[in-house]
Structure formats: C-alpha cells, structure tokens
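Narrative summary of target 7.
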Amino acid sequence: MSQSFSFLAFQQTGTKLEIIGPVDSTYVPLGHYMLFIMSKTNKSGEAGRPAAEAPIIRLKPKQQPPAPKPTPLIRRAAVEQHVRITLNMRNEQFMAEQERAPVIVGLTPVRPYDLDPCWADAYEALRNIKDIAAIRPKPSQEDSGAFVYLKDDIIPDVDVWQKQLKEVDGGSYQIRNIELTLSGVVTSRKVDDDEQLTLAPTSTRPLVVLAPFKADSKLEWDNVAKAAKQVTSEETCAYNNLLKTIAAHPSGLKLELSGRLQQHETGKYSLDVKSYIVRSGSA
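Modeled conformation, tokenized:
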C-alpha cells in the first residue's frame, strides 16, 4: 500500500552504472526508496530479473537558505507578500505560542527507517493519545523524538500512551523513553541509610521520587548505531548536585526539574534528573 516505482535513466561505462536521479518530486516524492538493478530481457522475451538485494537510498530536498525568524504576524505577512511558509517557520511560530515546556517522546521505528520519512504516520498516531493537546510540527530527526504538549499538568501513563499509539500505527513505533519538565517543591527524606529526594504531589499529579540519570535514561537516539547516545557528565552529576542543594534547604526548595519519567506500580512514578533550575528560595 502507498508504494510506487519509477524507472531511472542511467549511463553504463564498463561495469559501472551512473544513475540519473529524478528531477521532479511531483512524480517521485522525497523520502526513502529501494534501488533495484534489473537485468536485460533475455532472448526468450522473459522480463529482466531484479538484483537479490537493493540498497535503501534517500531523496532529499535541495539546501534552502535559513528561514527568517517568524513574528506574530508571520501568516499575514506571508499572504501579503506571497511568501511560502516553510516547515521551520511553522515550527518556530508554534513553539513561541506554547506556555508549557514540551514532553519529549522518544520514538523507536520498528521499520528500517528513521523518524523523518514516516513522520506523518507518527504524527497521526500521537494525535490519538488522549492526554496530548498539541504536537510540534517538526520532530527531532537527529534524536528520533517528538515534542508534545499536554492538556493538563499531569504525569503521563506510559502504558496507556503506548496502547493508544499502537491503535493507529499498528506497532510501527515503540515509545522507548519519555522526558518531561516538572515544577514543584523538592524535599529530602531518610530511606534506610540513604537520603531520597521527592517532588511533592499536586492536585493533578502524584508524588514523584527523584533518581540519578543513568545510561538507560538517555532519550537521544543514534539512528546508525540503533542505541541511545552517550550520557554527559553534567547529566550524571545532576542528582548529586541536587542533593547538595536540598541539604542547604531542609524545608524544601521550589525547583523546575527535567528528566526521564519511569512508571512503576500503579500510580507510582520516578524521574531520573537530567537538569534542574531553582525557581525561588525555601518553600
């Protein structure tokens, strides 16, 4: 379904083929293709046979100059001046209109492609998740992640999200990690002989236990290696630095925390702290 093929012109020099690519994306849309070499028709009139293996190639657009920084009047100006609104312009305008920090959803494609060529399918699947109010038009192709904005200040149920995603995409993507930003009061409590940091619950979300950021906490994805990228020293040290910060404020401290969300038992969550910002003095 939704597949097509196109015969390409080529020039042969000995055993070398120089293939002439399509010049018009109207008939050959941009994206990923399998490139087959066919043998000639034989003397019996039988059709040529394709090669046993076909490399996957990607047709990319020509390099465009940097898009101008959008303004609140970008759409009106574009109409008046007949300027083509690019995806980057739409993306920048969309980000400027959001009041909350995004939730970053790490999507691992099951197919042998990266996120970009199948983004339209992933976008529609994300729209099926009931907690999501809006989706940034452009994903992070480099890290294989989508940016979504929630309807309320809640903690996502990862299992429910995966189920609702699969209802539309049929399992083409797996949610490997969810990274979000939460604000609230952080305090310390004794658990056995260790200090444990927690983010206080609110009227819309439960208590969240804070934890160190580790290798498997990394959301950013390496499409070539098919593995998470390396964590940085700043990320792995964030939790210990936070422990020291909270030690100086026994009554708690108002913070903005970012990191990987983990879901445990029903209604219990933890956040692997990647970074934090102090928003005020003691709670």
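The radius of gyration is 25 Å.
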